[in-house]
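Ex. 9. Protein: Threonine synthase.
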Amino acid sequence: MNPTIALECIDCGRVFVPADERLVCPDHDGVGGILDVQYDQSGAREAVAAGVGEGIDDLWKYAPLLPTDGHAVDLGAGGTPLLDAPTLSRELGVTVRLKDERGNPTGSIKDRASAVLTSRALAGDESVLTCASTGNAAASLAGYAARTGLDCCIFVPADVPEGKAVQPLVYGADVYAVDGDYDDAFSLCRRVAANREWYDCSAAVNPYAVEGLRTVGHELAEQSRASVPDWIVYPMGNGCGLAATWKGFREFAELGIVEECPRLLGVQAEGATAIHDRFTGERARAGGETQADSIDVGHPHNAQKACRALEDSGGATVVVSDREILDAERTLGRTEGIYAEPASAATLAGLESAVDAGTVAPGDSATLVVTGTGLKDTASARDLVDGVDHVPDTPAAVPDPE
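Predicted structure tokens for Threonine synthase:
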């Protein structure tokens, strides 16, 4: 079953048939023209609702809603837990839950996108997969390419954390560290992919990346249908993850599986605030840097999708500093045993800021999407901790815990 019926340009509304395998609208001179996948969901409610409440093994539970032409590359993405966070809830005065994406096959939420992208690549007889990435999408696509036997070429910024550069190499991908930032890596990836007819899986342009990511919204809707949170808190880099989560959750509301939708709280780091600036109407800030590399995107191509999702949900955005992000990374570990990468910890920093500002009220409920594991970037955490205590080999030398 393939529910896809059209690809619609979010800028001009021009519609294309999926058989074209077009990634962007040609009417925008390479700027904008992002496409949104449209579906015929007649009959989808019966197919999906029948399994609600019966557990979620992986994202393919929602295959009737996914544009994969019957192909389904399975590596175990999805089916991640929704955890209570009692200590954080007490400290913040807000009921906090954590959608923990760290257990995906390559350690991040991007595996949801890669599952759908590689499935479409197989259906389209593609031979080489490529993407530009700040790290997590690179590792994810490489892992899924290895699973399918397809070649994979990755473009990353020169300063990508070592762990995120090594991981796709282990999967057998060719990794190119491009002099410059994510925008430079993205530009080179686009040019090479066009010249060599590689299948570009970059979330900045490939609309099917969003379709895989939207399954986190499906899962959240199913897992929280008895008590929908007031807020879903999501870190924003390119904007596609937040937009996808909203699309998935809203679909389940439209199918009658949940009765209401949450508001979105999008979080950006001080060094990369483009979506926040656009949504709030604030003057665009000069580009900077952030240690939260997964959301370090200066010119997010999915900003319009993200802003529409924020507006549709009655949501809000917040900007946090690197210090607040790193403090939140330590707090997540100390309070709930969650070791998250900085971009994921940004959700807690953002929630704390929103509570302080009164945007999130006392007694509200909020679900933080923990998008990736801290094991991807141990260097950023090194400054947060005191280090290992060296002691003599005698019991008396070992102090009691403080």
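Check your answer against this statement. The chain has a mean pLDDT of 91.
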